[in-house]
Specification:
Blueprint lengths: L13 H4 L6 E2 L5 H10 L4 E5 L6 E6 L5
Parallel strand pairs: 1-2
Antiparallel strand pairs: 2-3
Length: 66
C-alpha cells in the first residue's frame, strides 16, 4: 500500500487501496544491484523471502526512505 492511499475515510477497507504483487527478493540477491534497482524505481522497501518456500523473512528498508 502506498502512502498516498492511506488518505480516505476511516472505514475504507484495505482491499480498496492495496496493490497486488508486492516487490519481493530472495536473500541471495546481490545487495548493491538491489539497492540500485530500488533507487531507480523509487521503491523505499523490499520484502525478503526465504529460499526454501518463499515465505516472508524480513523487510529491507532503503537508506533514503523515511
Amino acid at each position: 500500500m502506498r502512502r498516498k492511499n492511506v488518505q480516505g475515510p476511516a472505514e475504507m477497507r484495505v482491499e480498496r487501496v492495496m496493490e497486488s504483487g508486492p516487490a519481493t527478493v530472495r536473500p541471495g540477491e546481490p545487495a548493491k544491484a538491489l539497492l540500485e534497482r530500488m533507487k531507480r524505481r523509487n521503491v523505499p522497501a523490499m520484502i525478503v523471502t526465504t529460499e526454501r518456500d518463499g515465505s516472508w523473512a524480513w523487510q529491507l528498508k532503503a537508506p533514503w526512505s523515511d
